[in-house]
């Protein structure tokens, strides 16, 4: 346990130099909001592995999975805001994940990727996007969105 504590002191903590933002289309059902957020956050974590902290352990020594080390900001906005945020994020070269309305009706990962590939980027029916990058850049990308209630 001492080793784990010593390692933890080297972690970067608040204030975080980067931001993870998930932007949801404002007309989603609650279960859709949760599902889309989980998928999009997992994509950011997969693309930026240094965002993952160390595994957890309780007082009994039971180990638990590691999680993203910093907060995930969840925002909402109309379709136009999502489309604009997608374009801004790609222009700035930020790691970006997308979730389209078609993905609610597909049967799995292969079908999901095919559904996205079938549509030009500017024409995607976005219900959510996630981005990661420097705070000020992510703020500019998500401008026009508001905090999720």
What this model shows, in words?
This protein is α+β, with helices and mostly antiparallel strands and 149 residues long. The protein has a single domain, classed as 3-Layer(aba) Sandwich (Bit1). It is 36% helix and 23% strand. It has five helices and seven strands. The strands form two sheets. A five-stranded mixed beta sheet has the order 5-6-1-4-7, sandwiched between helices. The chain is globular and about 50 Å long. InterPro entries: DUF2000, Pep_tRNA_hydro_II_dom_sf. It comes from Geodermatophilus normandii. This is DUF2000 domain-containing protein.
Radius of gyration: 17 Å
Characterize the overall form: globular
Q: Which superfamily, in CATH terms, is the homologous superfamily?
A: Bit1
CATH topology: Bit1
The first-level CATH class is given as: Alpha Beta
Overall SS class? alpha+beta
Taking pLDDT < 50 over at least 5 consecutive residues as the criterion, the unreliable ranges are 1-9
Quick one: how many beta strands?
Answer: 7
Looking at the overall shape, the CATH architecture is 3-Layer(aba) Sandwich
Q: What would the average pLDDT be, to the nearest integer?
A: 91
Main sheet characteristics: 5 strands, mixed
Number of helices: 5
Q: Please estimate the helix content.
A: 25-40%
Ordered list of secondary-structure elements with their pairings:
Blueprint: H1 2-8, E1 18-25, H2 30-47, E2 56-57, E3 63-64, E4 72-77, H3 79-91, E5 96-100, H4 109-117, E6 126-134, H5 135-141, E7 146-147
């Amino acid at each position: 346990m001492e080793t784990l504590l010593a390692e933890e002191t080297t972690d970067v903590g608040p204030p975080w130099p980067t931001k993870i933002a998930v932007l949801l289309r404002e007309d989603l059902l609650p279960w859709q909001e949760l599902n889309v957020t989980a998928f999009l956050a997992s994509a950011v974590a997969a693309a930026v592995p240094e965002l993952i902290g160390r595994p957890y352990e309780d007082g009994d020594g039971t180990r638990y999975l590691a999680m993203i080390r910093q907060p995930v900001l969840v925002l909402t906005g109309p379709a136009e805001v999502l489309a604009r945020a997608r374009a801004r994020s790609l222009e700035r070269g930020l790691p970006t994940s997308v979730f389209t309305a078609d993905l609610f009706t597909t049967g799995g990962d292969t079908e999901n990727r095919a559904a996205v590939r079938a549509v030009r980027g500017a024409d995607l029916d976005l219900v959510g996007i996630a981005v990661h990058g420097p705070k000020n850049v992510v703020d500019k990308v998500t401008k026009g969105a508001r905090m999720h209630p």
